[in-house]
Amino acid sequence: MSNNKIVVPEAKAALEQFKMEAASEVGVNLKQGYNGELTSRQAGSIGGQMVNNMNPVRTMRFERHNRISQGHKITVKYAFSLTV
C-alpha cells in the first residue's frame, strides 16, 4: 500500500510533464502510463535528473595537503546544495 498522497491535485499534470522532460534529457524513452520495462538504472536516472533540475548543486574546489605523501597536493571536490 502506498502512502503517497497528492497534496495539490492540479499539479499532477505539471509533474508528469516535468518527468517526461527529465527522461528525454537523460535519453530514456518514457511513455504515458505504466513503464514496467524500465531498468532500475533508467528510473533512477530520471529521478536524479528531476532532483538536479529542482535543486542544482553548487560546487567549489579546495586544495589540501596530502597527509600521506609530504609535499604533494591533491584536489578535493566538495559538493553542497543551497536550500532556501
Helix-strand blueprint:
Blueprint: H1 12-26, H2 40-54, E1 57-65, E2 73-81
Antiparallel strand pairs: 1-2
Helix pairs in contact: 1-2
Low-confidence runs of at least 5 consecutive residues: none
What is the succession of H and E elements?
A: HHEE
Strand content: 15-25%
Rg over CA atoms, rounded to whole Å, is: 19 Å
Q: Helix count, per DSSP?
A: 2
Helix content: 25-40%
Q: How do the strands line up in the largest sheet?
A: 1-2
Strand tally is: 2
Largest sheet: 2 strands, antiparallel
Q: Briefly note the structural class of the backbone.
A: alpha+beta
Shape: elongated
Look at the structure and give the mean pLDDT.
77
Oligomer: single chain
Q: N-to-C terminal Cα separation, in Å?
A: 33 Å
Describe this entry's structure for a reader:
With 84 residues, this protein is an alpha+beta fold. Helix content is 36%, strand content 21%. The protein contains 2 helices and 2 strands, in the order H-H-E-E. Strand 1 (57-65) and strand 2 (73-81) form a beta hairpin. The radius of gyration is 19 Å and the shape is elongated. The chain starts with 11 loop residues before the first helix and ends with a strand.
Please give a quick description of this structure.
This protein has 84 residues and is an alpha+beta fold. The chain contains two helices and two strands.
Give structural attributes:
21% strand, elongated, 84 residues, alpha+beta, 36% helix
